[in-house]
Design goal:
Length: 188
């Protein structure tokens, strides 16, 4: 077991840890987690390995998307309300891009927002309801993913799909930026 941060309630559990890792909480989350795993399993990963990785997940389903324009997924949900980019601005982005944009949703509330977006721009379509393996396959079929700092957005990085993460209250330390996976700090 690896000890990351000791909290008083975990002090008894420390008796069972075989190793400890010391890494700043402010470090990039991907690097931080990779470091902890590497430390525990006694191997190393460097930046080149993270940049040159193969897609992490297998594709379970092929999605046939049109090729007349770029296919862009837009993830509109997040676990915190403060991480959600305003739907009015999503419409504005869709209208500026003028590409095939698929609004990914994961709950009934998100679906209602997605339907509102689709009604307010001719460039957006509602994604189907997707199980996790289907979501991975769907994202893997895209040319670009734009989304909040949330799990489905991070799938794009895992699958080597170009992405733009819209960061509200979180920072770029929450993503592993690459030449094709970037974060943009938003006031929203």
């Amino acid at each position: 077991m690896v000890l990351i941060n000791l909290l008083p309630r975990e002090s008894l559990a420390t008796l069972f840890y075989k190793s400890t890792s010391h890494i700043s909480y402010e470090s990039n989350v991907v690097k931080r987690n990779a470091f902890v795993v590497c430390d525990a399993l006694e191997f190393t990963i460097d930046d080149a390995m993270l940049l040159d990785k193969k897609a992490i997940f297998n594709i379970s389903k092929e999605y046939k998307l049109p090729h007349d324009k770029k296919n862009i997924a837009f993830v509109i949900g997040a676990s915190w309300e403060s991480k959600i980019y305003p739907k009015e601005l999503v419409v504005q982005i869709c209208n500026e891009l003028k590409e095939n944009i698929y609004i990914i949703w994961g709950s009934e509330a998100e679906k209602k927002s997605a339907e509102w977006i689709v009604k307010n721009t001719p460039y957006a379509s509602l994604s189907p309801s997707l199980a996790l393996d289907e979501l991975v396959s769907y994202i893997s079929a895209m040319d670009l993913l734009i989304g909040n700092d949330t799990g489905p957005t991070h799938i794009a990085w895992a699958q080597n799909i170009p992405s733009i993460t819209l960061l509200g209250p979180t920072t770029t330390r929450m993503i592993y930026e690459t030449p094709k996976n970037i974060g943009i700090k938003s006031a929203f």
